[in-house]
Design goal:
binds ligand UAG, alpha/beta, cytoplasm, Folylpolyglutamate_synth_CS, binds 2,6-diaminopimelic acid, binds adenosine-5'-triphosphate, UDP-N-acetylmuramoyl-L-alanine:D-glutamate ligase, single chain, 3 domains, binds magnesium ion, Udp-n-acetylmuramoylalanyl-d-glutamate--2,6- Diaminopimelate Ligase, Chain: A, domain 1, cell wall biogenesis/degradation
């Protein structure tokens, strides 16, 4: 729902870019807000009937009209039309909503240098780093990310990685109003399929990588790839499309884009090149486009994130050396390879948002790269409920492969039985690894056990929830913060 009470616009002014099948009812309607939820509909509102994953918004048209909605945008008209209501029939309600939301909020993306980041992993890291970088370079900048939304330093809580088209345009309009010249945002695959970003004008797009995730939603890997590629296909000619040349799908992403094609790579010829000199516990040492630079982020995967952000900033017209100087001082996004160290026992906790096989593998590889041979690695990991089930055994297998001990536990079980999820994870544990695995459904107990198992100097990786400060069980979110639980357990166990 719109939070603004000030704007009132004639319906026709919102329809310029909308494909319309038919229009019924009054034409001279004033619109003061947009909603996709019938429960929020009221006089002056446009209600969009969307076909969702769980239910069909068309079922709630009567309810929205009963509550006073002035306009209904739908794909199928209801059998009876209410005389005082305007009905706009369209081939795709989500697409219509994207165009109408952009128009309602005055096309805020056109007043910003808007950069979108897509890919399986690294979106939050890249969008957050670019936001921090642009801030340090002196720009007023907005951020839309999984962790939080921001207008400069003002934090606005996020519910989605990419908000719905109404909320998204409303947030961009607030950024413009606050004087922002730039905005960085994550573009999830769900967002592309649901047209959340359809009517936005991007100045640039970044592709990080594509690996296994969200097959529950997209059905096949090919559909998942098409969703990500759809973002690049929709970029305007004026934008840049910056892709990871080292990723198997990096070039496919650029295949049909009208945007200017640019690449980054650690291994081959590309617009932006980096060479890995050292990946150490104190940070990465890279040579970027010939400039020797030390960074505070750890892990080869972060070399890719840093290079992508560097490339995007240079494509936005920033001075390469100045960009590198600022980037070298930045820390990562919250909950991404974040250390929680016990001074007493020198046990190092690492909280990381690795919730996909590739992310988990990368994080464990990073730990392997920087650990001393004497340090044991104990991994606590689970998989979210009501999400891609195929990744569960794979992630358990990878945890075993990269750790000395593994505690399988719950992530956000949502509406699934945690024991079912854990059974599916256990299926990925090889017989020879069984002895190193414990299964403890209660996440707090699991972290406690991992800390108890840790000897002086050992590493406890707590993966999957990163910055999240809740655990979602049967629709209820209760406070849960991996970082805090780790600290509590260090105290409780005198470590
Ligand atoms: C699977 C998915 O993407 N779901 C999103 C989708 O909901 P849905 O399709 O399930 O909606 P639905 O419940 O079937 O309802 C259909 C329509 O009927 C409407 N309705 C329903 C009931 C009613 O009484 N009245 C009414 O009007 C609903 O408002 C909706 O418009 O549209 C909703 C409105 O935009 C989103 O809030 C919702 O996100 C859910 C909560 C979600 O968990 N989404 C995740 C998977 C997601 O989007 N994740 C990506 C990041 C993924 C990643 O890359 O890691 C993200 O961008 O956040
Ligand atoms: N470039 C990368 N390649 C592979 N793994 C990465 C990369 N960057 C980060 N990761 C891993 O993936 C995890 C998630 O990173 P990040 O939050 O930046 O990704 P995301 O794409 O925003 O994820 P989400 O889709 O959940 O929003 C990190 O905690 C880290 O383990
Ligand atoms: N954006 C991802 C986040 C997953 C985080 C993990 N902790 C989980 O709950 O599965 C999703 O909605 O699938
Ligand atoms: Mg994210």
């Amino acid at each position: 729902m719109s939070e603004s009470n000030e704007i009132t616009l004639p319906l026709f002014s919102l329809l310029a870019d909308v494909r319309i099948t038919a229009q019924h009812g009054p034409a001279d309607v004033s619109v003061r807000a947009l909603t996709l939820n019938s429960r929020q509909a009221a006089p002056g509102f446009v209600f969009f009937a969307l076909r969702g994953a769980a239910t069909d918004g068309h079922q709630f048209i009567a309810k929205a009209v009963e509550q006073g909605a002035s306009v209904v945008v739908c794909e199928d008209l209801p059998a009876t039309l209410s005389p005082g209501t305007a009905y706009v029939q369209v081939p795709d309600s989500a697409e219509a909503m994207a165009h109408m939301a952009a128009a309602f909020y005055g096309h805020p993306s056109r007043s910003l240098q808007l950069i979108g980041v897509t890919g399986t992993n690294g979106k939050t890291t890249c969008a957050t780093l670019l936001h921090k970088l642009l801030r340090e370079l002196g720009y007023h900048t907005g951020l839309l990310s999984t962790v939080q939304n921001q207008i400069d330093e003002l934090v606005i809580p996020a519910t989605h990685t990419t908000p719905d088209a109404i909320r998204l345009n409303e947030l961009l309009a607030r950024m413009v109003e606050a004087g922002c010249t730039h905005a960085c945002m994550e573009v999830s695959s769900h967002a592309v399929v649901q047209h959340r970003t359809t009517a936005l004008r991007f100045a640039g797009g970044i592709f990080t990588n594509l690996t296994h995730d969200h097959l529950d939603y997209h059905g096949t890997f090919d559909n998942y790839l098409k969703a990500k590629k759809g973002f690049f296909d929709q970029l305007p000619k004026t934008a840049f499309a910056l892709s990871n040349a080292d990723d198997k799908r990096g070039m496919v992403m650029l295949q049909n884009t009208p945007a200017r094609r640019e690449t980054y790579s650690l291994r081959s010829a590309a617009t932006f090149r980096a060479k890995l000199i050292e990946n150490a516990v104190h940070g990465l040492h890279l040579e970027v486009d010939g400039h020797d630079t030390q960074f505070r982020l750890i892990g080869v995967f972060n070399a890719y994130n840093l290079l992508a952000v560097y490339g995007a900033a240079v494509l936005l017209g920033e001075e390469p050396l100045e960009v590198l100087t600022v980037l070298s001082g930045l820390l990562s996004a919250p909950g991404r390879f974040e250390p929680v160290v016990s001074e007493k026992s020198r046990v190092t906790g690492i909280v990381d948002y690795a919730h996909t096989p590739d992310a988990l593998e990368n994080v464990l590889q990073t730990i392997a790269d920087i650990r001393q041979p004497s340090q044991q690695v104990i991994t606590v990991v689970g998989c979210g409920g009501n999400r891609d089930g195929a990744k569960r055994p794979i992630m358990a297998g990878l945890a075993c492969q990269g750790s000395d001990r593994v505690v399988l536990t719950s992530d956000n079980p949502r509406f699934e039985d945690p024991n079912d999820i854990l059974q599916q994870m256990q299926a990925g544990v090889k017989v020879q690894d069984l002895a190193k695995v414990l299964t403890i459904p209660d996440r707090r107990e699991a972290i406690k056990t991992a800390v108890a198992l840790a000897g002086p100097g050992d590493i406890v990786l707590v993966a999957g929830k990163g910055h999240e400060t809740y655990q979602e069980i049967k629709g209820v979110k209760t406070d849960f913060d991996d970082k805090k639980v780790l600290t509590d357990m260090f105290d409780l166990l005198g470590k």
